[in-house]
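quick q for whoever's on today - can somebody do inverse folding on this one?? i tried earlier but teh output was garbage lol. tokens:
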């Protein structure tokens, strides 16, 4: 598996790849809505345009990259089936794409993955292999399965077609909303941020691009600021989709295209989720709220500017939401 990934990592996506991904996804992925809130604008003294990938198929932007990558496999690769590892959203995206493309899928997932994501992945026909984070790594489990079965491997973000597919979310936002001053994107492994940054640099070269990650897992921020790739292992944060780290490829793309990375606390994420649920009437998961949290809690200077923010997903356990909102003590 290592040799295969090292070979794949040599390919760096460009804007043409994002455009090709958009053509591949046309009529298959949802063109998700862009929402506004006067209350939000007044609170931050800016015009904020929120791209709602929580309305994407399977509830997150991950469908874009998974389908784009799987649709480009050869007939022989499709017949062997696809393997991936994921804490949840990429798992669902691979499973759903497999269902649509008639490809068998196997997904390595942690035992403590959100129940709603496990159930949805199974519902889309994915074969789940669970592992214990305290005993092994998803990379090791995946390597064993690849050696045994010869699957085609599509990782959550370290893949040129996955990154290009994720970039179509930013492409759509920039096509619909002209003259953005700032684009704010959540950051986990860097696929969404990298892809959107590629699109933004082509369509809005003067737009400031900012990534946002949880404070407990701010390895991306440290990496960008020091110029050296730093990777945290499973940070303790409610943003389960951001419990991963940049890879060499996404780090290089971020170094090339992204202006800054900031972080928010879990408490700020909870407050932002409450705000989005209450004011925009939309279901957003903790990871999905990262970009909006950075704007709402003024981690970025957006005063008087036109700002785009991407909500990455809405696959949240409703029981967990009750517990999280209970931590607020009182309504905003």
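ok took a stab at it. sequence:
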């Amino acid at each position: 598996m290592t040799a295969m990934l090292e070979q794949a990592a040599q390919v760096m996506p460009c804007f043409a790849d994002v455009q090709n991904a958009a053509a591949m996804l046309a009529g298959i992925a949802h063109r998700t809505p862009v929402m506004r809130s006067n209350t939000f604008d007044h609170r931050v003294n800016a015009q904020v345009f929120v791209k709602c990938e929580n309305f994407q198929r399977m509830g997150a932007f991950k469908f874009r990259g998974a389908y784009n990558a799987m649709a480009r496999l050869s007939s022989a690769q499709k017949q062997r089936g696809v393997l991936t590892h994921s804490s949840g959203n990429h798992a669902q995206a691979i499973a759903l794409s497999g269902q649509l493309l008639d490809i068998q899928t196997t997904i390595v997932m942690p035992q403590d993955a959100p129940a709603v994501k496990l159930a949805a992945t199974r519902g889309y026909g994915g074969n789940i292999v669970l592992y214990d984070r305290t005993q092994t790594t998803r990379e090791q489990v995946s390597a064993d399965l690849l050696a045994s079965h010869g699957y085609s491997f599509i990782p959550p973000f370290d893949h040129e077609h996955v990154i290009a597919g994720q970039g179509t979310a930013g492409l759509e936002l920039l096509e619909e909303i002209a003259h953005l001053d700032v684009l704010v994107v959540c950051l986990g492994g860097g696929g969404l941020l990298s892809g959107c940054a590629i699109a933004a640099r082509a369509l809005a070269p003067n737009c400031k691009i900012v990534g946002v990650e949880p404070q407990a897992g701010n390895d991306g921020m440290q990496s960008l600021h020091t110029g050296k790739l730093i990777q945290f292992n499973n940070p303790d944060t409610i943003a389960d989709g951001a419990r991963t780290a940049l890879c060499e490829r996404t780090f290089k793309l971020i170094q090339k295209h992204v202006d800054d990375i900031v972080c928010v606390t879990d408490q700020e994420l909870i407050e932002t989720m409450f705000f989005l649920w209450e004011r925009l009437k939309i279901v957003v998961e903790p990871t999905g709220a990262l970009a909006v949290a950075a704007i709402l809690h003024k981690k970025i200077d957006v005063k008087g500017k036109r700002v785009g923010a991407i909500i990455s997903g809405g696959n949240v356990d409703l029981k967990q939401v009750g517990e999280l909102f209970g931590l607020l003590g009182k309504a905003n």
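fwiw The chain has two domains: 2-60+160-326, 63-153. also The domain at 63-153 is CATH 3.40.50.1100 (Rossmann fold). so keep that in mind when u check it
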